[in-house]
Amino acid sequence: MKVYLAGIIDGEKIEKCKFWRHQIINHYSNWKNSGKNYGDICFLNPLNGEDDISKDGMSSNIPPSAIFIKDYNAIRKSDLFIVNMDTYKSKRTNIGTIMEIAFAYEHKIPILMITRDQMHYKHPFVISVVNCYFKSIKELLESRAINVFYKAFHASP
């Protein structure tokens, strides 16, 4: 199962942008400290390979058109889409993240949203495309929602 991890990318907040993604990846790399790895889950992290992100998050070591098509194709190939709407008080808007949500919806990929912003729970466009809401990464992981989708996609005949 391929899981895309969407959220703001801001060079000034890059550690926070990386941290939440690694929380999820690490959780599934050593399931409950049992040594068991959900090896069939491949997390598609848009920050992979982009080591030179500008402070405003608008450019990196690859051209903008390459960033767009790389992320678009990764979303298209995903089985599950997790989006963290926290902007970490960035001055930058999350336009790219909003577009990625639309791409996931367009390709009928289930969308799990992490947000505390009540607007995301009320906006007609958002509530029409989001399948599950979580207030935190911890709540997402404790809900085992990723596991549910994993089992659904890997059910025995």
Any chance you could write out the topology, listing elements then pairs?
Layout: E1 2-7, H1 14-29, E2 42-44, H2 64-76, E3 80-84, H3 95-106, E4 111-114, H4 118-122, H5 124-129, E5 132-134, H6 137-143, H7 145-153
Parallel strand pairs: 1-2, 1-3, 3-4, 4-5
CATH architecture: 3-Layer(aba) Sandwich
Instruction: Report the strand count.
Output: 5
Q: How many distinct folded domains? A: 1
Number of helical stretches of at least 4 residues: 7
The proportion of strand residues reads 5-15%
Q: Give, in order, the helices and strands.
A: EHEHEHEHHEHH
Contiguous low-pLDDT stretches (5 residues minimum) are none
In short, what is this structure?
By secondary structure, the protein is an alpha/beta fold. The protein has seven helices and five strands, in the order E-H-E-H-E-H-E-H-H-E-H-H. The protein has a five-stranded parallel β-sheet with strand order 2-1-3-4-5, with helices on both faces.
